[in-house]
């Protein structure tokens, strides 16, 4: 604050030759304490005060005359721009305000100064208390009489006593162990002392208050260190964690390097530094490109894309690396580079190890499946056509029941696959899945195969007897494949077992109760057989509780491509010749064929092709069998021939090719072509095939 801020600017002054009367009336009219007397340049020469004037008049008994005759007075001149603090020490004198040129400008009125000074004092006092109350630290101060004079908000909070109750009280009433009286007495401060107050750990500084070289009080500044301790503990934990992390990184087998968002190296672990044959200290802070010329870490921080399994030449070696961007709040802030293999050769070793493990796993999985019975689940049934999806849906429904299921469909459509899947998805999955091919077992052995026999049941019977398939399937499912081929006498025995839910071994007398789900399958027309009396009607109804009809492949050609892809992988693994690609031309031929042997025939065609194609190469049309290759060609080049002749040619070609594939085994050929042996013989004769 400047003097000018307190100045009462005035034009009231006198010159040396002014009359006393003038001075009296000015002082009186304007309630002034004094009036300056200036010269011609308005320089203050003197002042004349009320007291002066009174004294003079009393002494001289004069009321008129020149003011020059008056006794010269003491006065002080201050400049407008002087600090106001300056006048506090001379406030008892007459003060005249002048400008730079020493010209009179006005007075400083004492009443105004005192009022302002008082207001200012109050303002400062408030400020001081506001500051004290805003500090996080608790503050208590006492005066020389050990009375509390300062007690801020934080002190209230920490010590749990309101300031009204503390201010003015003896410190002993407020805080017994404050030790402020001791500090007051000795004048020695106590810094960084720990003390528990009100159950809270505090850290306290106690110092004497010194004014004019005299101890006038003592102050304690304290802080609750519960939070501080927590923060310290957290910092300590973080420090430990980062030390642990650093140790892990340094002891990691792999080389690890980290760059910031500009590609400058901020961390590198010991193995990487060792690999680069450089000192860590000379690496940190350098740009990645300066240390590893083939690096791409500075690029990864720009693209934000991870690069895994890349081969990079470092120090003349082809290493395999991965580079991962580090994201923070959606922004790339750096990247980590990691050596996955210090030598590409290591990858080959590892790959062959994985291969070996995979094979072992496959073997054990197969063995496990063998024990539990079912080899396939619904996941193994490939196909996206609506027809197959509907069939799968129905089959999945029957898994929830114990009803007998009859699966029907042409040969090779996947009936057995469905039987496995139904068992595997049912609550009998933990029980056995026993398959019996009714057509493959000679009719005289079928009974003992199905029901078992006791020792000595017949000549040639094994010692100790033999457990039957039904007994084996107890608690699980039995799959009677080719049920249409079951001999008539066996049909009656099977019916009895189904009705009574118990079985008796051949030559035995004990009944064994059964809890078996029966799944049957056939590609034969059972209804026609029932009509002809070849299949028992009562058995037919018992087996045919739930029927699942599997559509032929030609009815769902949408499944062809996914099946091809699936089978190529499956067969490649089985035969050990890897060929999973097939040309679009070849697929075209496969699509135009009508697959009488269904998926099994497709499997055979693909297996043949995989055997012919070179490892890893694509299957071409030339790898397909003749009858498929001819399909389209012959259709295209038929000219004006009758349909009957065209079909006969195609049929002949198909039979020839099939015979060739099965080494002339006519039974197998008839099965694949899904015609009876007699019908095959007829056609051979018709086309003159030897
Ligand atoms: N949808 C499919 N997905 C994958 N493989 C299939 C599918 N359908 C059939 N197969 C495969 O085709 C071959 C023949 O299937 P499966 O033996 O189940 O047919 P099937 O109808 O029981 O034949 P058959 O009447 O001659 O006994 C098997 O190798 C099977 O794995």
Automatic annotation (TrEMBL):
One Pfam annotation reads HTH_8
Going by the UniProt record, its keywords in alphabetical order are: ATP-binding, DNA-binding, Nucleotide-binding, Transcription, Transcription regulation
- What region holds the PAS domain? 124-175, 241-286
**Matching Gene3D superfamilies:** 1.10.8.60, CBS-domain, Homeodomain-like, P-loop containing nucleotide triphosphate hydrolases, PAS domain
**Membrane-spanning regions, if any?**
none
Is Cell division one of the keywords? no
Annotated protein name in UniProt: PAS domain S-box-containing protein
Ranked from the top, the taxonomy reads:
Bacteria, Bacillati, Bacillota, Clostridia, Peptostreptococcales
């Amino acid at each position: 604050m400047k003097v000018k801020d307190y100045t009462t600017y005035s034009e009231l002054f006198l010159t040396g030759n002014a009359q006393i009367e003038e001075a009296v009336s000015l002082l009186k009219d304007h309630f002034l304490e004094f009036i300056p007397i200036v010269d011609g340049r308005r320089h203050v020469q003197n002042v004349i005060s009320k007291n002066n004037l009174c004294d003079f008049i009393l002494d001289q008994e004069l009321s008129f005359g020149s003011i020059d005759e008056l006794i010269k007075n003491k006065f002080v001149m201050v400049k407008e721009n002087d600090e106001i603090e300056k006048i506090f020490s001379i406030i008892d004198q007459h003060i005249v305000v002048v400008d730079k040129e020493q010209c009179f400008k006005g007075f400083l009125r004492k009443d105004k100064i005192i009022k302002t000074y008082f207001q200012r004092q109050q303002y400062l006092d408030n400020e001081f208390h506001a500051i004290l109350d805003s500090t996080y630290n608790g503050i208590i101060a006492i005066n020389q009489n050990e009375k509390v004079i300062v007690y801020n908000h934080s002190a209230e909070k920490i010590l749990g006593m309101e300031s009204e109750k503390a201010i003015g009280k003896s410190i002993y009433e407020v805080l017994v162990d404050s030790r402020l009286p001791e500090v007051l007495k000795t004048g020695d401060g106590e810094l960084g002392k720990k003390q528990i107050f009100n159950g809270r750990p505090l850290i306290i500084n106690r110092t004497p208050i010194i004014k004019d070289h005299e101890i006038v009080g003592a102050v304690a500044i304290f802080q609750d260190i519960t939070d501080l301790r927590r923060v310290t503990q957290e910092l300590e934990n973080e420090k430990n964690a980062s030390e642990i992390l650093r140790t892990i990184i340094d002891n990691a087998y792999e080389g690890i390097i980290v760059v910031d968002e500009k590609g400058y190296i901020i961390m590198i672990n010991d193995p990487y530094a060792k690999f680069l044959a450089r000192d860590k200290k000379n690496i940190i802070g350098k740009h990645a490109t300066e240390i590893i010329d083939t690096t791409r870490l500075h690029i990864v921080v720009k693209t934000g894309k991870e690069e895994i399994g890349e081969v990079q030449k470092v120090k003349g070696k082809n290493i395999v690396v991965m580079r991962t961007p580090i994201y923070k709040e959606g922004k790339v802030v750096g990247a980590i580079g990691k050596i996955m293999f210090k030598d590409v050769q290591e990858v080959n070793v590892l790959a062959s190890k994985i291969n070996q493990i995979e094979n072992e796993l496959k073997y054990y999985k197969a063995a496990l499946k063998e024990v539990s019975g079912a080899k396939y689940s619904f996941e193994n049934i490939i196909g996206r056509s609506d027809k197959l999806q509907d069939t799968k849906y129905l089959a999945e429904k029957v898994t929830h029941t114990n009803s007998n299921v009859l699966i029907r469909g042409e040969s090779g459509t996947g009936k057995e696959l469905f039987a496995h899947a139904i068992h595997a998805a049912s609550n009998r999955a933990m029980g056995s899945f026993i398959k019996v091919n009714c057509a493959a077992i000679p009719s005289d052995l079928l009974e003992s195969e199905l029901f078992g026999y006791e020792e000595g049941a017949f000549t040639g019977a094994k010692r100790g007897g033999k457990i039957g398939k039904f007994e084996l399937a107890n608690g699980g499912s039995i799959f009677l494949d080719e049920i249409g081929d079951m001999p008539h006498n066996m049909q009656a025995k099977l019916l009895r077992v189904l009705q009574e839910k118990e079985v008796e071994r051949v030559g035995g007398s004990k009944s064994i109760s059964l809890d078996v789900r029966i799944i049957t399958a056939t590609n034969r027309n059972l209804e026609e057989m029932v009509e002809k009396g070849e299949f028992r009607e009562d058995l037919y109804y018992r087996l045919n509780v739930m029927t699942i009809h599997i559509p032929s492949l030609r009815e769902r050609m949408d499944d062809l491509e996914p099946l091809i892809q699936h089978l190529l992988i499956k067969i490649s693994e089985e035969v050990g010749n890897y060929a999973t690609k097939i040309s679009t031309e070849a697929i075209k031929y496969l699509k135009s064929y009508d697959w009488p042997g269904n998926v099994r025939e497709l499997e055979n065609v693909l297996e043949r092709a995989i055997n012919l194609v070179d490892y890893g190469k694509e299957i071409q049309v030339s790898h397909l069998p003749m009858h498929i290759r001819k399909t389209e060609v012959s259709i295209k080049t038929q000219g004006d021939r009758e349909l009957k002749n065209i079909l006969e040619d195609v049929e002949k070609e198909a039979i020839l090719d099939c015979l060739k594939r099965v080494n002339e085994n006519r039974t197998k050929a008839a099965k694949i072509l899904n015609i009876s042996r007699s019908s095959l013989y007829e056609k051979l004769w018709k086309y003159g095939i030897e």
